[in-house]
Specification:
It is built from 12 helices and 13 strands. The longest helix has 23 residues. Helices cover 35% and strands 24% of the residues.
């Protein structure tokens, strides 16, 4: 990897920043091991190591697979799970996101980076919006075009041919953590936004109560596909460095604990000598499973809401604005 990122003191390569010599967010050298874990989604055994910066609180994957090798970690099972999650009951799934955008923009040009098959874009289909997307996989992009009419670029977001000052809104749901160089990626987002345009993103919160409770079994780790692991503090640092204006940084009342419990269950089975079914091959939940899951949700609801209020929820939801007067 030869991409570079700028810091106040020097220019460093992404390869250097992800092998533990410097922090990819601030360029600092006060680094410490954070945790080690395997790819629990596929029940693979290779162990990966996360590092943490003591200066800006950033967490990232040390020595990640190179881009040419990353395809083996994005299996058909993985893509199927992502598409299914985005499409199921789209209006209910994306209701909160639509409401958030409507608080800040009534219409214009909207780009969804990582649009998948168009689940979110389908909820924005009205005359007030011109829809665009970026998607890595051609057949998935075709589904997004067919269902939403959006103009979808296929490929790496950094290679998308959009002009500066094009978009009123850019959305990025569960994507930023997959990017090799978040600083370069967000610089491109800022370039594409019109002055006063907003960037709306969601991602796992590495400083959440669930991450602390489940540790290496936390579903939000998603190793090695998640290259960066953000917290409110580290994301604020990065966005401030790039000159964005903060509108909203919060952790809504949601939870990944069911998936994390499944990871714990699989580990226990393996230690006892039994075979376990990976999340990649998991079948839809039966009636009993759904009933137990609903009971857990009700029991944990007070804790989930307290954590959200305290900024310790497992999902980080942010809105930042490109300052007016900033042109590219």
């Amino acid at each position: 990897m030869t991409s570079t990122l700028e810091t106040d003191n020097n220019t460093i390569t992404v390869a250097e920043s992800m092998t533990g010599t410097t922090c990819p967010t601030c360029g600092g050298h006060h680094l410490a091991p954070f945790l080690t874990a395997p790819d629990r989604f596929h029940l693979r055994t290779q162990v990966y190591r996360l590092m943490r910066c003591d200066d800006c609180n950033a967490v990232w994957l040390h020595d990640p697979p190179i881009p040419a090798q990353m395809g083996e970690h994005y299996t058909e099972d993985y893509h199927r799970a992502i598409v299914t999650a985005g499409e199921g009951s789209a209006m209910d799934r994306w209701k909160g996101q639509v409401e958030m955008i409507s608080r800040h923009k009534a219409g214009g040009d909207l780009l969804d980076i990582g649009c998948s098959s168009g689940g979110f874009l389908s909820t924005m289909m009205n005359p007030a919006w011109s829809l665009y997307g970026i998607e890595m996989e051609e057949s998935t992009a075709q589904r997004a075009r067919a269902t939403t009419g959006a103009r979808v670029f296929v490929g790496d977001a950094m290679e998308a041919p959009f002009l500066p000052n094009t978009f009123d809104v850019i959305t990025c749901f569960d994507v930023l953590e997959h990017v090799y160089s978040p600083r370069q990626f967000l610089s491109k987002v800022q370039e594409w936004l019109k002055p006063g345009g907003i960037f709306y993103a969601m991602m796992p919160n590495i400083d959440s109560w669930e991450a602390g409770l489940f540790g290496t079994h936390w579903f939000g780790l998603e190793l090695p596909r998640h290259l960066s692991h953000f917290s409110p503090r580290s994301l604020r640092y990065l966005m401030n460095e790039l000159g964005f204006e903060e509108i909203c940084v919060q952790t809504p009342a949601c939870s990944y604990y069911e998936r994390s419990i499944n990871y714990v269950y699989s580990s226990v089975l393996k230690k006892l000598g039994f075979s376990a079914t990976s999340q990649a091959k998991a079948t839809p939940a039966g009636f009993v499973h759904k009933a137990v899951r609903k009971t857990f949700r009700i029991a944990l609801s007070p804790l989930v809401h307290i954590a959200a209020f305290a900024g310790a929820g497992p999902c980080l939801e942010v809105v930042f604005k490109k300052r007016t007067g900033v042109e590219h």
